[in-house]
Amino acid sequence: MRKPISILPIGFDLFLYLLVAVSIPSAVLFSILYPNVILEQGLSHRIFYFHVPVAWVALYGPILASFFSLIYLVTKKRLWDDLAFSSNQLSFLFALGVLFSGPIWANSAWGVPWDRTDARLQSFFILCLSLVSYFVFRFLILEPKKKAIISSYLSLLCAISSVLTWGAIRWIENPGNHPGSVLGKGGMDSDMKISFWLSVLAYHFLFLILFLIVYRTQKILSYRETLRAERA
């Protein structure tokens, strides 16, 4: 008897889809219409409500994948490798969103789309290269167990890169033009806080539903590989 693709009830999926369908448009409209305009940047600062929450998810993804990878290295169960792969795929997807939105905001705030002296930008770019390396090795290695083991170690390296990216504006004395943590002492006005945290929730809900979809797709592919191996 084949194992089910998901043990979650169908109603839970529908609830998540509804949550995302409501929260994402609400967050976008709220960030456009509600918070006050920052005079130094004009309307372009509103991309902050997309850029930062998406960046948070992009940084969390490799850490989550490293957790799954550690479990795989202990148990050698393919389930955990599939979960790690799914998490890294989404991390890279959200990272592309950061690389797309970041230069737009930077060009408005700094006058240049990419500042080579900025520690956060350079460290995030290295994170993206680390994730690309992860996918390249998974593609090149054909033997499933060897692929999973090497991928697990690469996931750990991606997680280290993620942590270093997070700390780039916290541990370096002069990190560059990049603003400090949004949770720092300066804080935000109440209208910005409401818009920001609504966006954070919305994009984390989006990450969750996409994670379930990607993982189930990967599980189907794993079953297909198993069937082919059995027939061979």
UniProtKB/TrEMBL annotation:
Gene Ontology process terms (BP):
cytochrome complex assembly
**Keyword field:** Cytochrome c-type biogenesis, Membrane, Transmembrane, Transmembrane helix
The family database entries (InterPro entries) matched by this protein are listed as: Cyt_c_assembly, Cyt_c_biogenesis_CcmC, Cyt_c_biogenesis_CcsA/CcmC
Q: Per the record, GO CC terms?
A: plasma membrane
Transmembrane region positions? 12-34, 54-75, 87-106, 121-141, 153-172, 194-215
Q: What is its main location?
A: membrane
GO molecular function annotation: heme binding; heme transmembrane transporter activity
Membrane topology qualifier: Multi-pass membrane protein
Q: Cytochrome c assembly protein domain: from which residue to which, for each copy?
A: 20-171
Keyword flag Transmembrane helix: yes
Q: Does the keyword Repeat apply?
A: no
Record's subcellular location: Membrane
Q: Which Pfam families match?
A: Cytochrom_C_asm (PF01578)
Instruction: Say what the protein does.
Output: Required for the export of heme to the periplasm for the biogenesis of c-type cytochromes.
Hey, which family's this protein in? Belongs to the CcmC/CycZ/HelC family.
PANTHER family, per database record: CYTOCHROME B_B6 PROTEIN-RELATED (PTHR30071:SF1), HEME EXPORTER PROTEIN C (PTHR30071)
Q: What is this protein called?
A: Heme exporter protein C
- Which species is the source of this protein? Leptospira idonii
